[in-house]
Design brief:
Layout lengths: L12 E7 L5 H8 L4 E7 L4 E3 L4 E3 L2 H8 L4 E2 L7 H10 L3 E5 L17 E5 L11 H7 L4 E8 L8 E9 L6 H25 L31 H10 L7 E4 L2 E9 L25 E3 L6 E5 L3 E10 L5 E2 H8 L11
Parallel strand pairs: 1-2, 1-6, 2-5, 6-7
Antiparallel strand pairs: 3-4, 7-8, 8-9, 10-11, 11-14, 12-13, 13-14, 14-15
Helix pairs in contact: 1-5, 4-6
């Protein structure tokens, strides 16, 4: 026991960890490394078929728990009576819950002395819900952060404990930001638990009038609306990676696109680019070439354009923009989304 980390003779903080995906792994590993924390058990989602082969695989959190020789519990429904019996028997001081994947029934919330402590990937009360990282990027935000809170019976409405801000890179995707946030969240969870145990953190209620929602992603969210500006479309491409991605249609066939906005000094029809079409025909979604034979662009709303990087037609492999155009034998005025 490391007596420097807590008052002399104090008992170790007894913790149950509840989580499922990779996002929760750094926090679990970090808590395991604290000699004055005692991990009693891990609760994670049941093993599920994953990937193209649909082979049954364990969650990333379960992998870590098994390697650490922790008891692992995988209830199909956490509201089952046996889960309450388990938690009452374990009698944890606190339950840490990170991206577990099920709603916790109110009758379980009072079992741990310090409550259920959640790491949420936004600066609450903004971006409550299942997909805060995706939506904060898709909406073009440049800053976000992490929040620890004590969960209640609502959806991310519990009292706030600690928060930490961070910048979003201009080209950062949702998986990239998620990886950074999960690493940054690990010490924040530790700091929160120590503060609760010492009585130095005072929970305070959220301002519900400032709340915004980050709902679970739907496939339709990835459909490109070419009326949006190039930057808006690009933000959604970054935010909706890897799923649902950004997709449209070409000659009636669905396709996923990867693109980037043009530099501010680039101009349509100016020195930097030229269009093979009269401006009147340059409707959003229209493809046009640049000065280089491999430069291909798409007109977007608000007189902006995206540089097309690659295309994946449904059922085919991903190819570069120039390979796509060459294979399609593009006709003047053809556009994406024209179904």
């Amino acid at each position: 026991m490391n007596s420097a980390k807590h008052s002399g003779g104090a008992s170790r903080l007894r913790i149950v960890f509840c989580g499922t995906p990779q996002f929760a792994v750094p926090a679990l590993k970090h808590l395991l490394a604290q000699p004055d924390f005692e991990l009693l058990a891990v609760i994670t989602q049941p093993d599920r078929p994953r990937g193209r082969g649909q082979q049954v695989s364990v969650s990333p959190v379960k992998d870590v728990a098994l390697a650490a020789h922790l008891p692992v519990h995988q209830p199909e429904k956490i509201r089952a009576p046996e889960v309450q019996q388990l938690l009452e028997k374990l009698a944890p001081d606190v339950i840490v819950i990170i991206a577990y994947g099920q709603i916790i029934p109110a009758r379980l919330l009072s079992i741990p002395k310090h409550g259920w402590i959640n790491l949420h990937a936004s600066l609450l009360p903004r971006y409550r819900g299942a997909a805060p990282i995706n939506w904060v990027i898709a909406n073009g935000e440049t800053r976000t952060g992490l929040t620890t809170m004590r969960i209640d019976a609502g959806m991310d409405t519990g009292d706030l404990l600690l928060q930490s801000e961070m910048e979003i890179g201009p080209s950062e995707t949702a998986p990239e930001l998620a990886a950074r946030m999960s690493e940054a969240g690990a010490p924040l969870i530790e700091q929160t638990l120590r503060g609760l145990a010492a009585g130095t953190i005072v929970p305070h209620p959220q301002n519900h009038t400032e709340a915004t929602i980050a709902p679970i992603l739907k496939k339709e969210d990835g459909r490109i609306d070419w009326i949006r500006s190039a930057q808006e479309i690009y933000n959604r491409m970054r935010g909706f990676a890897p799923w649902p991605g950004a997709y449209t249609t070409f000659r009636g066939q669905s396709c996923h696109l990867w693109a980037e906005p043009l530099p501010e000094n680039a101009s349509l029809g100016g020195e930097a680019l030229h269009s093979p079409l009269p401006a009147a025909q340059s409707t959003p979604g229209t493809l046009f070439g640049g000065k280089g034979k491999n430069d291909w662009f798409v007109f977007c709303g608000k007189t902006t354009s995206l540089r097309l990087k690659s295309v994946k037609l449904e059922g085919r492999k991903q190819v570069s923009a120039s390979e796509f155009v060459s294979g399609a034998r593009l006709k003047p005025g053809e556009r994406f989304g024209n179904t």
